[in-house]
């Protein structure tokens, strides 16, 4: 998109017109001087700050500091007098703010009440809270830092001061000091004071049209911008802050100016565009509100007045549609121009009308700030002294993130300030680096979609599992048959309705396979298995595999409608079941009733289907996911490496979900024993504990909510396996992990993650490796299994760095075992993978009415 000269001229006219309109609206009356002896109402901005002070009287988050280093022969007495002269001239600096008949008012005090200290800790001085109802909102520290060198620190509560006031106060203080040193008369105090402005503003009507515009503009905002924080948002926001430097070099600053000129915008608008584009990407949202400080000094009578005039413009830019950098800049430009045209509306009035959800955890409407100062401040001139600005580290903040940039000779310089209760310094540095990278990309290639702009050189492919060479030429059922040949009498299955050795399991399954083949089952054809957790279950599943078909597990607890839907979607012509359920599906084969000679083994290629399993449908309509032999065997090899071989497993949840594959085939493929715990026992804490007391198992995998339910009504220690507990299938709260650790500190506990499309799990988190300060919310999804690479992508499938929220992800085995597509990601924790994905090349399976296969 290009901007013509006429369009650029029109934009500039609109921008200038917006400013003139705001100025005209504010200057149609003169601010009258009032009686200084009468308590004055607070301005809307002051009232909000007074209210916040009542909630957090000990907070230093609203302290404004002015700091200057003075080199030379300083007259401390003259400077002390000049500081109080400053308070004499500006009544707001010597006022108290108290409750009067249920409303806060400002009461002018004496300038001599302003404390001026000549020694003390700078940090303690600036952090010391104000008692606004008892003392003035200004205090000063004059600290000797060396021979003929002093540090002057003014600390003022925001209720009486703003950023504009800092420069005014220091320059005026320099003039007052010069008058004191020279013995000249002091300048006359201004006739109109901040209290007069507050009275004048209270008597004016807020433009209804402007207020309506803001309400409509900000309607429907999410309560909180979902930033990728390192810690959950606490119930009460902390005020502690950290900061990392941000520097825009001269060459990049020149490109910012060039792009702004080409699009009829300002450099600020370009900086805003990059900031909002970054926030959109790291938060995974298209709706990005950013607060921008506005001077709020529309009236000429207040341009030189010290006080709290600062306002806030909320710039809400729509980042949807994957716009190019130039297109997004145009949107940000329009947003800024429109906001300037309605800039006189107090932010407090907007909040009152919108009535957002209020809490102590966050600021309303917006949580991220951008502050750009295009005009660098000039240092004050004290006689016989050299004055130098001093930047003290920022210790407190009201906002989650605050990007502040100031124009300097060789570019922009500033910092990214962050809440330390939400972010680590490493994360803030990463965000600052991404901002500069995105700004560079935006200005270099404005015609490129912002989603394509790199956040860092060569996005890392993501965490990778260890490289292990597995034998992937033996299909699943042959892994089990080998144990039947080598250890025929070893126990394989233990259930409420019987026991099976490996030889018995293998032979019965071969008989089922012969029956299916004689009935005409085709290779890879889905065969439904509708059984409870008894010995018929592994016999049927293994029999289907031996027939060269793919088993389709169905939980008999499903309603008839869903059973029929699954059978129809999969095109299943054959159903294996138990006598109790034979009437539910006409023509079903009862496993226990199948007799005859076992089928001879057939060679099944590794790329043939092993099973088709239907998802729960929690994220939409249930779909069938098809998994090949090479994928499930790769997974079982990886699980065996992580969990161990020849172990006993307890299957305590439905076999119709991929969760059960680990328990069932994790045992049988490695020569272990699978305990098929029936539904009643698995959900009764006392019965399950009694079972484990008689039949202790090495490993168990179940969903966290199942374990929580059992633990809520039983003895948790008695409900756990001997060696390994794996929790999967849903987010796992750290509270559950810590309860398990308290009763069984010796137990190996892991949390695995992977949607159905990933052939069960592809990542696992060893909870012992997560330090205590990272244990908040839910357990991270962990590190990849062997031969698995994880990549976080955005919705368009583009890789993004760790730390971004993204709505799509993928995880792929690096070996030829499989290729993958993916589904979900989240904010990573230290040492963990940020995403998961699929280990199946076939992400959907259904059969049409004509019998053709679609994927």
Tags for this model:
855 residues; alpha/beta; nine-stranded mixed sheet; 35 strands; disordered N terminus
Description:
The chain has 855 residues and is an alpha/beta fold. 32% of the residues lie in helices and 21% in strands. It has 22 helices and 35 strands. It has a nine-stranded mixed β-sheet, sandwiched between helices. Helix 22 (734-743) links the parallel strand 26 and strand 27 (748-753). Helix 14 packs across helix 15 (536-546).
Number of helices: 22
- Helix and strand content put the structural class at alpha/beta
Strand order of the largest sheet: 16-15-24-23-25-26-27-28-29
Largest sheet, strands/sense/barrel: 9 strands, mixed
The helix fraction, in percent, is: 25-40%
**How many β-strand runs?**
35
Tell the overall outline.
elongated
Radius of gyration: 35 Å
User: Could you tell me the mean pLDDT?
Assistant: 87
N-to-C span: 40 Å
* % residues in beta strands: 15-25%
Low-confidence stretches: 1-22, 813-855
Structure in a nutshell:
This protein is α/β, with parallel strands linked by helices and 855 residues long. It has 22 helices and 35 strands. Strands 16-15-24-23-25-26-27-28-29 form a nine-stranded mixed beta sheet, sandwiched between helices.
């Amino acid at each position: 998109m290009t901007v013509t000269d006429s369009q650029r001229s029109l934009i500039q006219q609109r921008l200038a017109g917006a400013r003139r309109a705001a100025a005209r609206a504010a200057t149609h009356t003169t601010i009258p001087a009032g009686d200084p002896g009468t308590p004055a109402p607070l301005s809307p901005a002051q009232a909000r700050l007074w209210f916040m002070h009542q909630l957090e009287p000990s907070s230093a988050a609203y302290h404004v500091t002015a700091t200057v280093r003075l080199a030379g022969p300083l007259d401390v007495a003259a400077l002390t007098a000049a500081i109080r002269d400053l308070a004499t001239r500006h009544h707001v600096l010597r006022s108290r703010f108290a409750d009067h008949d249920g409303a806060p008012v400002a009461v002018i005090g004496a300038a001599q009440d302003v404390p001026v200290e000549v020694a003390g800790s700078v940090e303690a001085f600036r952090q010391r809270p104000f008692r606004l109802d008892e003392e003035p909102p200004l205090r000063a520290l004059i600290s000797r830092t060396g021979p003929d060198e002093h540090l002057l620190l003014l600390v003022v509560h925001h209720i009486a001061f703003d950023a504009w006031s800092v420069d005014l106060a220091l320059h005026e203080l320099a003039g007052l000091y010069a008058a004191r040193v020279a013995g000249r008369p002091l300048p006359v105090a201004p006739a109109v004071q901040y209290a007069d402005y507050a009275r004048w503003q209270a008597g004016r009507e807020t433009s209804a049209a402007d207020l309506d515009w803001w309400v409509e503009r900000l309607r429907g905002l999410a309560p909180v911008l979902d930033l990728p924080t390192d810690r959950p948002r606490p119930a009460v926001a902390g005020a502690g802050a950290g900061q990392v430097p941000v520097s825009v070099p001269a060459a990049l600053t020149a490109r910012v100016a060039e792009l702004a000129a080409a699009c009829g915008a300002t450099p600020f608008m370009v900086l805003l565009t990059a900031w909002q584009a970054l926030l959109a990407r790291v938060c995974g949202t298209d709706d990005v509100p950013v607060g921008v400080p506005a001077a709020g000094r529309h009236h000429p009578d207040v341009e030189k007045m010290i006080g709290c005039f600062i306002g806030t413009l909320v710039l809400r830019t729509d980042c949807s549609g994957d716009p190019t950098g130039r297109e997004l800049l145009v949107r940000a430009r329009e947003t800024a121009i429109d906001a300037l045209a309605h800039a006189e509306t107090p932010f407090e009035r907007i909040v009152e009308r919108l009535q957002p959800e209020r809490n102590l955890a966050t600021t309303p409407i917006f949580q991220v700030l951008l502050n750009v100062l295009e005009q660098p401040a000039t240092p004050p001139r004290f006689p016989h002294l050299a004055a130098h600005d001093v930047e003290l580290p920022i210790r407190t903040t009201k906002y989650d993130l605050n990007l502040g940039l100031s124009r300097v000779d060789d570019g922009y310089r500033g910092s990214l300030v962050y809440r330390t209760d939400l972010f680590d310094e490493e994360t803030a540095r990463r965000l600052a680096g991404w901002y500069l990278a995105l700004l560079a990309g935006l200005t270099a290639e404005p015609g490129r979609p912002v989603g394509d702009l790199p956040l860092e050189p060569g996005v890392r492919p993501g965490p990778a599992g260890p490289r292990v060479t597995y034998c992937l030429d033996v299909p699943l059922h042959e892994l089990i048959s080998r144990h039947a040949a080598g250890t025929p009498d070893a126990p394989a299955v233990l259930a409420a309705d019987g026991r099976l050795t490996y030889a018995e399991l293998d032979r019965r399954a071969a008989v089922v396979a012969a029956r299916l083949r004689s009935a005409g089952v085709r290779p890879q054809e889905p065969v439904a298995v509708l059984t409870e957790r008894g010995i018929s279950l592994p016999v049927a599943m293994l029999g289907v595999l031996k027939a060269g078909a793919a088993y389709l597990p169905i939980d008999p607890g499903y309603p008839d409608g869903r059973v029929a839907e699954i059978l129809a979607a999969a095109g299943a012509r054959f159903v294996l079941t138990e006598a109790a359920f034979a009437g539910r599906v006409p023509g079903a084969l009862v496993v226990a009733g199948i007799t005859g000679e076992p089928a001879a083994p057939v060679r099944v290629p590794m790329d043939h289907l092993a099973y088709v399993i239907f998802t729960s449908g929690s994220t939409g309509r249930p779909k069938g996911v098809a998994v090949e032999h090479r994928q499930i065997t790769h997974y079982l090899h990886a699980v065996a490496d992580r969990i161990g071989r020849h172990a006993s497993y307890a299957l305590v949840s439905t076999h119709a979900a991929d969760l059960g594959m680990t328990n069932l085939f994790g045992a049988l493929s490695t020569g272990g024993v699978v305990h098929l715990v029936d539904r009643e026992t698995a959900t009764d804490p006392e019965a399950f504990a009694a079972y484990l007391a008689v039949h202790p198992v090495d490993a168990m995998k179940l969903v966290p909510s199942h374990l929580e339910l059992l633990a809520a009504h039983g003895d948790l220690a008695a409900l756990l396996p001997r060696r390994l507990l794996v929790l999967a299938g849903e987010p796992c709260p750290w509270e559950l992990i810590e309860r398990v650790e308290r009763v069984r500190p010796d137990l190996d506990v892991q949390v695995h993650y992977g949607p159905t499309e990933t052939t069960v799990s592809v990542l696992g988190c060893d909870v012992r490796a997560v330090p205590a300060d990272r244990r908040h919310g839910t357990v991270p999804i962990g590190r990849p299994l062997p031969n698995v690479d994880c990549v976080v992508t955005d919705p368009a499938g583009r890789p993004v760095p760790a730390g971004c929220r993204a709505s799509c992800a993928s995880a792929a085995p690096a070996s030829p075992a499989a290729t993958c597509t993916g589904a979900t990601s989240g904010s990573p924790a230290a040492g963990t993978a940020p995403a998961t994905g699929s280990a199946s090349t076939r992400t959907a399976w259904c059969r049409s009415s004509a019998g053709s296969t679609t994927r």
